[in-house]
Amino acid sequence: MNLRISTHLESIVTFYVEPFESREFANLIPNFLQSHSERVFGNIREIITLHRELAFTAVPINEDSPTELAEKLIHVKPRLLRTYLKYFQNAGTSATYYRLLQRDGRFLKSCQSNASHGLSLDSFLLKPIQRLTKYQLLLEELLKNCEETQKSVVRAAVVATRDILTEINVSMHSLRIRGFDGNLLEFKRLCLQTECVVRVFSPKSLRISKVHKRMLLLFERGIMFCKEKQNKNNLLEPFLEHRNHTLVTYMGFEECSVLAAEYFDIWDVRQRTRYSVHVEDDSIRCKVIQKLSELTVLRKGDFARRDASVGPPVPRAVRPKMKRACSEAALHFPTFAV
Fold first, then answer.
1. Would you say residue 86 has pLDDT above 90?
2. In terms of domains, do 213 and 295 share one?
3. Which has more confidence, 140 or 61?
4. Under 8 Å between Cβ of 96 and 52
5. How far apart are CA 256 and CA 334, in angstroms?
6. What does the pLDDT read at residue 11?
7. pTM for the whole thing?
């Protein structure tokens, strides 16, 4: 088995970036887009250079290479993260410029014709993140098959790759979510996103106070409801305006809502209101419920670990005696001036 850098990354430069920067194709590009290569393609050259330096090109996997590859990836993790974050933080600008090129059409048609394949530019621009996920899958496969003495290093590389993907995932969505003042890293990776209808109600009276159409964002460690809004500039992608959220630590969940069987209930245990949520697509609804059930189990595990770390509760009758004992013991120890 060989590890090779995908030629797709180089193809972006060969068939799109270089023609975009060439005077030969200037007549196919609107004047106001010329000389803005980095805004369309980001730091794609930097990503390609980094992958070359990882020396993943045609390296045979022998007895020593699993740890060699893992150690290299762990070593470049900070730089890999910085490089990819820079790429994806430009994603919104890149998408805007791509739509402008698409509107004119001439440059993209010419490039795609020269490339002799069916992939569009926006498909090409997804290749860098696909490269990272392939590294993760490869390392996970190596972890299953490597020697026991090699597992700790390979496992650390798997964790490093997951950390990078999580931070990139969070960074991408933080650029689109507005009005959220918390730390999105606490929510971990985004697992699922779908439209839904939310009924806000009182658990005591079951009275519905509000009904909203929302975007449900289900993360590994929490859930968030946002309102999708259009940018004033129609060329820009819609953004998500944060409305409410809850982390797994404070999450309550019931698979069947008290209001309707096809809804499920979600709430923050610190608040008085609850949310009855309806997802129209049955398959997506099942996935959401399954993940929320897992989060509920995770929440119970968090509380169990917290209680175990604190220790068993002290009976009330014993507490005064302990307090007096501590006070009496303190009398037998000298005090020291600091």
1. no
2. yes
3. 140
4. no
5. 63
6. 82
7. 0.58
Residues in the chain: 338
Average the pLDDT over each of 29-33, 168-172, 230-234, 277-281 and give the range with the smallest value: 230-234
Query: How far apart (Å, rounded) are the C-alpha atoms in residues 98 and 14?
Result: 17
Tell me the backbone φ, ψ of residue 238, rounded to 5 degrees. -60, 155
- Give the pLDDT of residue 67: 81
At what angle are helices 151-176 and 91-104 packed, to 10 degrees? 60
> Among 174, 193, 211, which residue terminates a domain?
174
- Band (310; pLDDT cuts 50, 70, 90): very low
pLDDT average, residue stretch 279-295:
91
Give the helix ranges, DSSP H, for 13-125. Answer: 18-21, 37-41, 44-53, 65-89, 91-104, 106-115, 121-124
DSSP letter, residue 188: -
Same domain, yes or no: 249 and 144: no
Domain range for residue 201?
184-302
**Distance in angstroms (rounded) separating the CA atoms of residues 234 and 215:** 20
Is the Cβ–Cβ distance between 7 and 75 less than 8 Å?
no
Number of other CB atoms surrounding residue 334 within 10 Å: 4
Contact criterion met (CB below 8 Å) for 165 and 177: no
With beta carbons less than 8 A apart as the criterion, state whether 47 and 83 touch. Answer: yes
Q: What are 259's two structure tokens?
A: 């209001």
Pick from 54, 58, 48: nearest CA to 84? 48
155: CATH: 1.20.900.10
What is the average pLDDT across 100-127? Answer: 80
Q: How far apart are the first and last CA of the chain?
A: 66
What is the torsional sign of CA 141, 139, 89, 126?
negative
Q: In total, how many domains does the chain have? A: 2
65 with 212, same domain: the answer is: no
Listed residues 143, 174, 205: the one ending a domain: 174
pLDDT band at 305 (very low <50, low <70, confident <90, very high): low
Residue 192 · residue 284 · CB < 8 Å: yes
d(CA 251, CA 277): 14
